C-alpha cells in the first residue's frame, strides 16, 4: 500500500472518488493478481498437490506491493515483455518458498480476466450505492415541490401545466431503471475460474493425473474463494467479451438518463425557473460578469456523451474476438473499462451535487404561467359559460376572436397577454366574471400531479431503496462537494 498514488492509473482523475480510483489503480490490480495466485495455490493444495505450508504463508504475507516490488516487476517486464510473468517473478522474490508454484497450471488470463471480473463487480457495487443517493436526493426535491404548478413543455413549447415535483419524478423513474439495470448486471456476473490456456483445462487435468473431478472441484473452489456464486461453464482463453457489453450497457443507459436530466436543468436555467448550485464567489463568464452558467449540468452532458460511446467500443471488441482469443482486445479494454466506470462515477458525483443544491424561483415560474394560462383557460371559460346557459359555439367564437387579439399583443407588439382583461371587458362573459379567479387558479390545471408524486415515491422509490445496500449508501453518503 506504500505510495499508493504513485501507482494509480492516469485515468483515475482527481474528479473520481478515491474508492473508484483505487479500484482501477495498478496497486489494486496487482494486489488482486496476488490474491488470485494465493487462492489457486490454496485450492491446489487442498486437492493434494505438494504445495508447502510455508509457500502459502509467504504468499499471504506479501499480497500488497511496495515501490520496490513494482520496480522489480517493471525491470523484469522490460526483459520479458510480459506483464503477468514479470509479476510472477516479483511475487516469487518476496515469497521464495512459493516461487516454483505461483501460477501453477494457469494461463495469464487466470489473473487478468478473473481480476477484471472482480473489478467490474466491485465497481458496479460502488455505482449502485451512489445512484441510490442521487435517487433519494431527487425524491426529497420532488416531494418538496409536488404542489408547485409550472408550465409543462411539449416540443419545448408551453403545454398543459404540471408541477415542479412531478417533473422531477420523470428523472427519478429513469434513475430507478438504471439502478435496476446496474444490479442486474452486477448480480449476473460470473467468474472465469481455472480454465487453462484455451478453456479446456488441459493443464490442470495433467496436474491432477487425469482426475476430472478434481479439476472441476478446483474450478469451483477457486470461484468460491474469490467470492463468486458461479463460474462460466465454458470459456475460451478469456471470458467472453460479450460480458463487457452487458456490463457497459447499463452505464451507457445511465449516461442517457444523466444527459436528459442535465439538459432539462440547463433549459430551465435559461428560463430562470431553476438553477443548479452556484457559489457566492463563482464566476460564470470571464467577460459577462452577470452570467450564471450551468457548468455542472454542462459537465454532466459532456461526460455522459462520452460514457454512452464507450458501450459501442465494447460491442465492436466483442464482435472481433477470433476463435479462442486474439490480443487486440487487451489494450482497448485496459482503457475502456476503467474509463467507463470512472466517468460514470464523476457523472454521479456531479449529479448528486446538483440534486443537493437546486434553486427554484417561484415568482419566475408564476410569471411564465400567467403569460400562458389565459390561453389554456379558454376551454374552462367556455364550459363555465355553457353551464350558465350559454351557447358553446357562440362562446367558442367569442373566445377565438379575443384570443387572436391577445396573441397579436404578445407576438407583434411584445406586450403582456391581456386576454383575461378582454374577457372581463366583454358583457357576454358577465355571468362568469365572478368565477374567473377560480377558473384561472394554476392548481386547477395540474391534474393529479401532486398525488402522482406521493404515490410514486411511496410505491416505487421507497421500496427500491428499502434494502441494506441502498440504505447504507444513503445514510453514509456525505454531501457531494466539487473541487472545481
Polypeptide structure, described:
With 484 residues, this protein is mainly α. It has helices spanning 18-23, 26-46, 53-60, 67-80, 83-94, 108-144, 164-188, 202-207, 212-225, 242-271, 295-319, 330-355, 362-376, 378-387, 392-411, 419-425, 436-439, 449-465, 468-476, and strands at 149-154, 157-163, 274-275, 359-360. The strands form two sheets. A two-stranded antiparallel sheet has the order 1-2. The chain has a two-stranded antiparallel sheet with strand order 3-4. A hairpin with a 2-residue loop joins strand 1 and strand 2. The radius of gyration is 31 Å and the shape is elongated. One of its GO terms (cellular component) is cytosol. Its EC number is 4.3.2.2.
Write the layout of secondary structure elements.
Elements: H1 18-23, H2 26-46, H3 53-60, H4 67-80, H5 83-94, H6 108-144, E1 149-154, E2 157-163, H7 164-188, H8 202-207, H9 212-225, H10 242-271, E3 274-275, H11 295-319, H12 330-355, E4 359-360, H13 362-376, H14 378-387, H15 392-411, H16 419-425, H17 436-439, H18 449-465, H19 468-476
Antiparallel strand pairs: 1-2, 3-4
Helix pairs in contact: 2-6, 2-9, 4-5, 6-7, 6-12, 6-18, 6-19, 7-10, 7-18, 10-11, 10-12, 11-12, 14-15
Amino acid at each position: 500500500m506504500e505510495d499508493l498514488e504513485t501507482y494509480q492509473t492516469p485515468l483515475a482523475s482527481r474528479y473520481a472518488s478515491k474508492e473508484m480510483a483505487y479500484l482501477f489503480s495498478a496497486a489494486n490490480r496487482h494486489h488482486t493478481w496476488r490474491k488470485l495466485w494465493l487462492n489457486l495455490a490454496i485450492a491446489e493444495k487442498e486437492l493434494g498437490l505438494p504445495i508447502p505450508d510455508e509457500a502459502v504463508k509467504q504468499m499471504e504475507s506479501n499480497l500488497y506491493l511496495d515501490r520496490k516490488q513494482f520496480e522489480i516487476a517493471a525491470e523484469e517486464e522490460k526483459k520479458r515483455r510480459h506483464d503477468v510473468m514479470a509479476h510472477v517473478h516479483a511475487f516469487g522474490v518476496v515469497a521464495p518458498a512459493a516461487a516454483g508454484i505461483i501460477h501453477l497450471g494457469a494461463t495469464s488470463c487466470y489473473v487478468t480476466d478473473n481480476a477484471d471480473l472482480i473489478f467490474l463487480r466491485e465497481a458496479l457495487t460502488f455505482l449502485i450505492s451512489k445512484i441510490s443517493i442521487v435517487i433519494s436526493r431527487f425524491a426529497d426535491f420532488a416531494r418538496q415541490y409536488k404542489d408547485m404548478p409550472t408550465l409543462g413543455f411539449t416540443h419545448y413549447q408551453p403545454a398543459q401545466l404540471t408541477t415542479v415535483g412531478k417533473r422531477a419524478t420523470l428523472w427519478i423513474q429513469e434513475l430507478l431503471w438504471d439502478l435496476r439495470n446496474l444490479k442486474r448486471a452486477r448480480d449476473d456476473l460470473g467468474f472465469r475460474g481455472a480454465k487453462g490456456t484455451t478453456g479446456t483445462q488441459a493443464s490442470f487435468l495433467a496436474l491432477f493425473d487425469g482426475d476430472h473431478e478434481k479439476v472441476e472441484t478446483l474450478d469451483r473452489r477457486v470461484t468460491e474463494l474469490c467470492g463468486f456464486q458461479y463460474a462460466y461453464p465454458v470459456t475460451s482463453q478469456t471470458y467472453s467479451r460479450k460480458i463487457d457489453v452487458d456490463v457497459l450497457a447499463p452505464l451507457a443507459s445511465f449516461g442517457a438518463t444523466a444527459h436528459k436530466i442535465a439538459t432539462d436543468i440547463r433549459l430551465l436555467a435559461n428560463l430562470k425557473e431553476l438553477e443548479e448550485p452556484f457559489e457566492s464567489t463563482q464566476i460564470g463568464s470571464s467577460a459577462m460578469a452577470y452570467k450564471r452558467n450551468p457548468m455542472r449540468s454542462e459537465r454532466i452532458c459532456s461526460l455522459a456523451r462520452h460514457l454512452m460511446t464507450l458501450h459501442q467500443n465494447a460491442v465492436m471488441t466483442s464482435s472481433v474476438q477470433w476463435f479462442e482469443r486474439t490480443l487486440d482486445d487487451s489494450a482497448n479494454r485496459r482503457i475502456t473499462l476503467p474509463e467507463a466506470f470512472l466517468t460514470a462515477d464523476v457523472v454521479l458525483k456531479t449529479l448528486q451535487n446538483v440534486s443537493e443544491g437546486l434553486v427554484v424561483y417561484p415568482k419566475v415560474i408564476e410569471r411564465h404561467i400567467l403569460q400562458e394560462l389565459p390561453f389554456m383557460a379558454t376551454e374552462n371559460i367556455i364550459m363555465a359559460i355553457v353551464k350558465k346557459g350559454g351557447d358553446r359555439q357562440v362562446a367558442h367564437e367569442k373566445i377565438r376572436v379575443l384570443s387572436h387579439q391577445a396573441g397579436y399583443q404578445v407576438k407583434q407588439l411584445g406586450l403582456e397577454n391581456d386576454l383575461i382583461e378582454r374577457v372581463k371587458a366583454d358583457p357576454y362573459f358577465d355571468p362568469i366574471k365572478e368565477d374567473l379567479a377560480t377558473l384561472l387558479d394554476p392548481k386547477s390545471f395540474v391534474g393529479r400531479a401532486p398525488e402522482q408524486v406521493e404515490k410514486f415515491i411511496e410505491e416505487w422509490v421507497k421500496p427500491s431503496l428499502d434494502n441494506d445496500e441502498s440504505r447504507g449508501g444513503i445514510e453514509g453518503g456525505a454531501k457531494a462537494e466539487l473541487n472545481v
